[in-house]
TrEMBL record, chain A:
Residues 165-194 are annotated as: Disordered. Keywords: Oxidoreductase. It comes from the Bacteria. Coiled coil: none annotated. This is Thiamine pyrophosphate-dependent enzyme.
TrEMBL record, chain B:
It holds the Pfam family POR. SUPFAM superfamilies: Pyruvate-ferredoxin oxidoreductase, PFOR, domain III. This is 2-oxoacid:acceptor oxidoreductase family protein. Keywords: Oxidoreductase. It comes from Demequina lignilytica. GO terms for molecular function: oxidoreductase activity, acting on the aldehyde or oxo group of donors, iron-sulfur protein as acceptor. Residues 10-179 form the Pyruvate/ketoisovalerate oxidoreductase catalytic domain.
Automatic annotation (TrEMBL), chain C:
Residues 516-545 form the 4Fe-4S ferredoxin-type domain. This is NAD(P)-binding protein. Pfam families: Fer4_20, Fer4_7, Pyr_redox_2. It comes from Demequina lignilytica. One of its GO terms (molecular function) is iron-sulfur cluster binding. It comes from the Bacteria. InterPro entries: 4Fe4S_Fe-S-bd, 4Fe4S_Fe_S_CS, DPD_II, FAD/NAD-bd_sf, FAD/NAD-binding_dom, Helical_ferredxn. PANTHER family: GLUTAMATE SYNTHASE [NADPH] SMALL CHAIN, GLUTAMATE SYNTHASE [NADPH] SMALL CHAIN-RELATED. Keywords: Iron, Iron-sulfur, Metal-binding. The keyword Transcription does not apply.
UniProtKB/TrEMBL annotation, chain D:
Residues 16-229 form the Pyruvate flavodoxin/ferredoxin oxidoreductase pyrimidine binding domain. This is Pyruvate ferredoxin oxidoreductase. InterPro entries: PFOR_II, Pyruvate:ferred/Flavod_OxRd, Pyrv_Fd/Flavodoxin_OxRdtase_N, THDP-binding, Transketo_C/PFOR_II. Keywords: Oxidoreductase.
Amino acid sequence: MSTVHIPFLQTGTLAVGGRLLDDAERSVQSQADRPSSLTRGHRACQGCAEALAARWVMDTAVEAADGRLVVANATGCLEVFSTLYPESAWKPPWIHSLFANAAAVATGIASSLHAQGRDDVRVLAQGGDGGTVDIGLAAVSGMFERNDDVLYVCYDNQGYMNTGVQRSSATPPSARTATTPAVGRQPGAPQGTGKSMVKIAMAHEIPYVASATVADLRDLEAKVRTAMSIHGARYLHVLVPCPLGWGSSSSESISLSRAAVQSGIFPVVEARAGELTDVQRIRERMDVEAYLRPQARFAHLFKPGGEDALNRWRALAEANIRRYDLLGGRP
Amino acid sequence: MTQIRIHGRGGQGVVTAAEMLARAGFLAGHEVQAIPSFGSERTGAPVVAYCRFADVPLRTREPVLEPDVVLVQDPTLLGPAQPFAGVRPGGLVIVNTTEDAPWVREHAGDGEVDATVVTVPATRISLDTVGLPKPSAAMLGAYAGRADHVTLAAVQQVFRDRFPGRVGEANATAAAVAYAHVRGEPDPRIVPSAEVSHA
Amino acid sequence: MSGHDAPPTLGLSTGPATSLSYHTGTWRTERPVYVDLAPPCSLACPSGEDIRSWLGSTQEGEAGFETAWRRIVAANPLPAVMGRICYHPCQAACNRGEVDEEVGINAVERFLGDTALERGWALPVPTASSGRRVLVVGSGPAGLSAAYHLRQRGHDVTVREAAAEPGGMMRYGIPAYRLPRTVLAAEIRRIEATGVRIECGVRVDSLDDAQAEFDAVVLTVGAGVAHHVDIPAGAAAKIVDAIDVLRDVASGNAPLLGRRVAVYGGGNTAMDAARTARRLGASDAVVVYRRTREQMPAHPTELEDAVGEGVRVQWLSTISEVSGPTVTIERMELDESGRPVGTGVFEELDADTVMLAVGQEADLSLLSGVDDVDVRDGVIAVDPGTLMTGRDGVFAAGDASPGSRTATFAIGRGARAAAAVDAWLASRVLPAEPVVREAEASRLNAWYYSDAPKQHRAELEAARRVTGFEEVLAGLDAEHAVFEARRCMSCGSCFECDNCFGMCPDDAIRKLGPGMRYEIDYDYCKGCGICAAECPCGAIDMIPEER
Amino acid sequence: MREVLEGSQAVARTVARCRPGVVCAYPISPQTHIVEALSVMARTGELRDCEYVNVESEFSAMSVSIGASAAGSRAYTATASQGLLYMAEAVYNAAGMGLPIVMTVANRAVGAPINIWNDHSDAMAMRDSGWLQLYAADNQEAADLHVIAFAAAEELGIPAMVCMDGFVLTHATDVLELATQEQIDGFLPPYSPTQVLDIDRPTTIGTMAGPESFTETKYLQHLRFLDAADVVEAWSDRFTEAFGREAGGLAVRYDPDTLDRDRSAPPAGAEDLVVVAMGSVIGTLQEAIAPMRAEGLPVRLVGISAYRPFPREALKAALGESRHIVVIDRALELGSGGVLTGCVGRALAGTGSRIHSVVAGLGGRPILEGSLRDVIARALAGEQRGLEFLDLKTGGVPVPPVGATEVAR
């Protein structure tokens, strides 16, 4: 993994910082004067991991770009909670146009900057899973295929949370949403593996594709830094628990992300030019239950009749563990 | 005002022919207009294009309904395309064919029309000169040979301008060959030895 | 508003960071609050050391060693000694045991103690004198601790020790392979350097005389007299007290014990006796104990060390008779209440010597004829808060008073007695010890602590250690001591890992700089609780917001 | 220099001379020749300091333009028909954000049935999107309008569509005189955006506006739109001064007798029937009406060049005392009549005018001079009803013969 190795200082690489760290070893988020590109006063729900991930991503990108970063944002929670006129929680130059076009707007910005000879200014586009995996997929794919100089970041909360928690093609099987209610013979979202945006991105053979979570800041920052060191189309997929949509406690957004990784449900990977180059191994293996049970959207899995679906989840985790060798050869 | 209608098939350069004709007309001192009538761009589909020459700027956008001149770039269009439709009395119809005028009248939908029918093996000429079945230059050369709306020199010039180099020259030759053909003059490619000796 | 003079951006664009005008703190139903809780290590430390804090200083490396040592000696003036002999209940309580292995607190303490001796760091010398004179009777851990703490408070302190050298059981009960005499002597000298006067070979016979000479007296006479049990024994039976053997060895008069030695008892003294017997040439040392391993009072590490050196243990056994070289043993079993009862099954054991290690008693001859100082259950009765005996101005601590008979407990009680004496001399009421909240393991988020096993002290080859009285355990070097200190999870106390600061989705926590920790901006904190959930050490409480 | 050029080529060259920073291209007939020509210029270097982006949809074409414009570049794209509707959301968005993008719309019918030929249904569907809509009567104006469009759009902070009839103009070859690079450089101010994504002065563009502020943002947009008429007219006048030929403007006047375009032509009189039309049909009307005038028939022609903002005052001024109007419409408001007719009607509300709506040329149906003369004559004779479909064939949908060309239809 591209994570910076931190010597053992009580917490090592796992915590945000530590008073014993050298400056060079500090995460961006541990710096008292970090950019805080998404700052106080935004209206995200309590415990919103998207708000957290966006600040992490953008702060790192701002640092990597030496402050020269322009951002295009898709419609969605992130846009709505951060920019209700006349207030904006953003510090970098930032534009919101539409739901489906963040990637294309970013291409436009990048093209304009290139035409102006301003290749020193970097462009980041971001959106939720709806704006990326569903309605915005064509624009994202176009941006990838042209290899436009844009880092696209998808904050995946697995549904249309802004509109009241409806299913998206990133919604996992069995999850209860407003359009996949937990009733009937197969409650929740239909079975199937859904759409893997990471694999779709890899299929474009763009220079860099990675997934990350808010459970590992160091990893996320390292990936943003790597992505920013490359020109061309880059994609970062960040899992961001949504307390509202997932029916979890606002304090659990980090721990659920951790459980998603440690259970094998969410593989944290890196790929270059379409080839998988790195995989984050499971550190402490958890059962899928650690991920599923705290979420009300999966409550029906733990009632009579939920066993089949629960076993499918276990199978999914097993499949990921095998496919990505998440245990690194350990039993 | 002189109105010209060109019939052909997609891929034969019908639209190009109309534009080249307009350019040649402009060189010859006319106000000009070329209007293609498009279908979807499919090779082989029947295509019509129009051209107008006038002494004042051309304003109308209606298609040519009563052409003074009709150029038929493909003899297979004689039936279904009704190339003789609306031809003004005393008009000129030039058909790309190795057959003769009576054959054309026989196969055209309206064979009794009051018009001069001229044939020219434009495809053969273009194959001989350009190396491709692109009969436009030959058709325009033939037109220059039978009417004074445009000159051979203007036709040759526009092809040389559009396709600089060998292709332009080949088209210019095609125009000259067709020009000579419809005027009953010797093929300009065959230089009589007598002329050489007299030169 | 007029025409296109109004910018087309009006209503669409806005300045950066203008959201600061919107105070999301009003959304909160719970508020995070930083707390400092008592860690289990300190709560378990009878000496009362602030272990978390001195480990914290040690984590800083070289720059923090002296601070760390000074934080230890604020409670315990004998770190090098205790770093060797303490049975470290702190480690048993350490929350890190639930993550991988407990922090090797004891080893770090020894490192700091040894470092202090090496570098000659001195204990603080009081600048002001109270003019009050206090006598401490006995120079064991309780006495030295009481004397040190009294001296730190400015009193004129004299220690009178009946034995030839100071140290009490540390000098005469604990074998040198566990506690080299040079270390003990050095730490005692350092206490003396603060102005404590130690008079050896001076037995205090009269409490009245002592009180006449001193303003207050602290009795820390220890429990150096062996307890006896009645065992039928033949004339040829060689039965000795373990504590006497240990004292003789410590005094340089090693006795002859024979090739086969039986030790009767299950405490640490029994372990020391058995291991000493091995060092004195016994090929066969058997500990006979009437209960089970789980019930054994000896510290498990002592047992492990003994077993590692070839000592055998005969569980659930009593010695019913000693005749010549043969010891008769009765097998025991536990009744319903867990007490051993005889089974009537006997077996025999060969033993040249039987060492009795069935407990020790205090030598309370000083109190004979003193009727206002109660002795109950063989120890001096004291007020549990002030440690004052029935007689005004006379206090007691250590093994001669109620409580655990361990050096660490003695040090803690000595310090407590010093505080009590100080209060009594000033006619103040000694405040009760404050009630503290424990930082329980359930508060911690252990995920954040990297997997880092305890740095095991390199143990001497078991075969080698039985051949002499060389020190068995080597100390940590600085690098390993720092590493070990860094394994401390700082239970219940912020150690500035930046998790709260970095993980706040609302950017509502401010970092105040090294050592200054953080501040929550309640104007913006929405009370999501991520900071508390992801705080590794459980130093954030979420409390209901009452408006 | 007068030269013979295809309309699309003329537009492409003029656009290139306006020095766009970003050009987005997605193919749809009949705008393809324009972006094809620009792609050649981007490769040959004739179009310098410009990014030519081949996008994956019209939606992205407009979105890339939005990003480019917001980042400080003059942005251009072209589309038609289904493409315009496919980008509709972004079209509205560009206008709402005040980004002065210029887009050529090669007007084409909107399916179903799918039809690639000309009418105005596409642009009319976007009439309330907040864009300027400038209609070209011929290819000379189509080229010239782009210069005016960039100038007016950038002054206003309102994007502009230049609408030119698909195929009829885009693919037609005419004798034209293009504005030269030097002329355009002297005429068109450099792009200086009112808002830009600037790292030195960061701003947030595209916030959400709640009920408390949305009405006012729209009201301001409306006020800007009201100002737009003056701005478009002013730039058109400046163009005429600079280039010596008329282009753009609001309501276009024609000489009563020569039918030549003439801004000094008198308004219509009370006895006149005025034909109001938009786009390339004006040329055909010029030819159709001239002989009628020669016969002494009281017919006048007024063109609409700026459909958005709709030139209410300029139209009323050009109509003068006339209260008898025939509107030739190339788009249909289903169940109602011509789209332009509705706008003219609203502009003339309260004037007591008689307005005939003639819907003509849908889906590429040729508009013939004779048919126009016929409908005008009937209107003069008081025989024309309120709504008429020009050259409507009765008896259902005609089936063309196999292999027929347009001539035989």
